[in-house]
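<discrete_fold_record>
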Amino acid sequence: MPIQNNISLKPYNTFGIDVSAKYFISVSSLNELKSVLALEEYPNKLILGGGSNMLLTKNQDKLVIHLNLKGIEIIVENDEFVIVKANAGENWHEFVLWCMDKNFGGIENLSLIPGNVGTAPIQNIGAYGVELKDTFVSCETFALPDLSMHTFFKSECLFGYRDSIFKQQKDRYVITSVSFKFTKHNHKLNIQYGTIASELELMNVVNPTIQDISKAVISIRESKLPNPKIIGNSGSFFKNPVISKKQFEDLLQNFPDAPSYPVSENEIKVPAGWLIEKAGFKGKRFGCYGVHKNQALVLVNYGGANGNDLLNLSKLIQKTILRLFNISMEAEVNIL
């Protein structure tokens, strides 16, 4: 496919922000990707996956490379577990459903997370007590700028809360595929986090399967989160802040109902959504953009907003949270 000029990126980002790429190409094979990455006449390049974890605030003068690498294959399989390799361009939720169909357990709690497989390790995506790193085996990458192939195993990825070596060293590696290890029997179910247990009760499920958990998570997310195909959004805009135990004790003095999740002996995670809702932003609308009515973590584009509208709203929220709670919040999405 030849390089195109002045292409709108609106269909390629879940916020639905209408900015243009001066140069654009979609690649569907490793050879195509390597050839495009090697083009010296385009020194500045932007790798675009599912467009679900970014906020575009301006037109892109770079060569935007859309990763459309498809394919899922079983690498190793025995009676107890299976190792599955998925290429970077596979839609994450469709990959989860593929696993559910085959009774491969481990990522059922990560159902309906927007984005593609290739971007999932960058953020170490997580939900309902489960993170990508829990099933991650390795990923294959192109190293920039020499375009050598390099395989990263879990210990090399420096996974943390919404963090990894790929996030810390941006623009250094392009993930082309990810391999996971899933259980085939005796699945260890995680139903204690959030409202999964109560959702299973509503479903009249007593002995849940991984498919039941996936359905419960989908139901919960659909009730709280807007569909990007209908209302532009990027899922959770902010990370849940992690604060010291002393800071949390101070918070309880003024807000005794503050929810929390222990991270370590000295650190506490406070839900960002609760902070934003407590500050009065939940459901607040500013013309064609705002904060979603059902989930305060989600900033939304109702249609016609630009990236700077949403960026300025995020900064207002951060400033207000700092003033009211003395807690700093960090954006989860990439600002471009």
Q: What stands out?
A: DSSP finds nine helices and 20 strands in the chain. Residues 72-224 form a domain with the Uridine Diphospho-n-acetylenolpyruvylglucosamine Reductase; domain 3 fold (CATH 3.30.465.10).
